[in-house]
Amino acid sequence: MTTSHTESTSEQHFAPSEAWDAIAEGYDLHVAPQEVGLANEALRLVGLEPGERLLDVAAGPGGLALPAARLGAQVLATDWSPAMIERFERRVGAEGLMGAEGRVMDCHALDLPDDSFDVTASMFGVMLVPDQATALREMVRVTRPGGRVLVIAYGSPAEIEFLQLFIGALQAVAPDFPGLPDDPPPLEFQISDPDVLLRRLTDAGLRNVRIERTAERPEFASGREMWDWVFFGNPIPGVLVADLSEDQRGQLRDVLDGMVRERAGASGRAVLTNAVNVGIGTTR
Ligand SMILES: C[S@@+](CC[C@H](N)C(=O)[O-])C[C@H]1O[C@@H](n2cnc3c(N)ncnc32)[C@H](O)[C@@H]1O
Fold first, then answer.
1. Is the minimum distance from the CB of 119 to ligand 1 under 6 angstroms?
2. Structural contact between residues 56 and 78, judged by C-beta atoms closer than 8 angstroms
3. Rounded to the nearest 5 degrees, what angle is found at the Cα of 190, between the Cα atoms of 62 and 101?
4. pLDDT tens per residue across span 116-158
5. What's the whole-model pTM score?
6. Interval between CA 56 and ligand 1 midpoint (Å)
7. Is the CB of 84 inside a 6 Å radius of any atom of ligand 1?
8. Is 107 helix (H, G, I), strand (E, B) or coil?
């Protein structure tokens, strides 16, 4: 693979904070509610206890931070997108959650003192940042000695059903679409290999690192529901379809709808299985 191809792939898979601002409302409405089961499972795996201080890094509108606050943790949710943090704070207010606050912050340089949290976590957040080594070291730095760090990231693209369906639908309307590169993988899949995740957590200074393999299982009744989940979940799919004509976009919607309805069958809801790796380590 040439350097220029590598660079263009990374650029195509990097979204600035404004792009996340633009999808914050949709993320809050269509994506975060589907993450509750996975978030609770990960919080159980990390052994979160009521009263513990939890930092959520690249928290979005609170897919992990809200379930943690509901369990009674003292939560600080951080994200570089002001719109995401605003949505989080709105949810905190609406639910009357105590001890939960949000702050706008870049995960590569956390504006927080050393050793401040019992648990530092990131769900589908540090998995996609360009300087992941720095972001992981920052998570370790702000975690107290003996505290835990939790990283939730997508597993192998081949085991992510939404991606296989979406790329299949895209190729049905744009046969030239080459699919995703695998060497190197796009930023959002840089730690999809559990061995790489384990190595990066260890390199960041963590001990007793373990990787649990699980899945998220979003449910869709129609192609429209899946469309909203895909396009509000990350700015990248919007980039991938930017060159499609209006006609092709309409076709893409129809193909996705057919796929989802066929999959849903008599139950009326298609449940997809997307491989997820949960990495957990301790600071001593
Ligand atoms: C896929 S969303 C995940 C949100 C949330 N953790 C969840 O699982 O619902 C990725 C989030 O990472 C945030 N993000 C991306 N780069 C970041 C950075 N450098 N610093 C802080 N947040 C970042 C985005 O703004 C977005 O809210």
1. no
2. yes
3. 15
4. 999 999 999 999 999 999 999 999 999 999 999 999 999 999 9
5. 0.96
6. 10
7. yes
8. coil
The alpha-helical segments, DSSP class H, found in the chain are 3-12, 17-26, 36-45, 65-70, 82-95, 132-141, 161-173, 194-203, 223-233, 236-240, 246-264
d(CA 214, CA 48): 18
80 lines ligand 1 (CB under 6 A): yes
Would you say domain 3-282 falls under CATH 3.40.630.30? no
The three-point CA angle 244-83-218 to 5° equals 60
Q: At what angle do helices 17-26 and 82-95 cross, to 10 degrees?
A: 30
Is the distance from the beta carbon of residue 281 to the nearest atom of ligand 1 less than 6 Å?
no
- Give the SS3 label for residue 60: coil
Chain segment 86-115, per-residue pLDDT in tens? 999 999 999 999 999 999 999 999 999 999
Report how far residue 132's alpha carbon sits from residue 157's, in angstroms, rounded to the nearest whole number. Answer: 19
Q: What is the pLDDT of residue 8?
A: 47
> In terms of Cα–Cα distance, which of 240, 253, 233 is closest to 23?
233
How do the domains of the chain map onto residue ranges?
3-282
Amino acid, single-letter form, for residue 265: G
- Mean pLDDT score, 162-185: 92
- Exposed, middle or buried by CB within 10 Å (0-12, 13-18, 19+), for 50? exposed
Residues in the chain: 284
Closest atom, ligand 1, to C-alpha of 188: 1
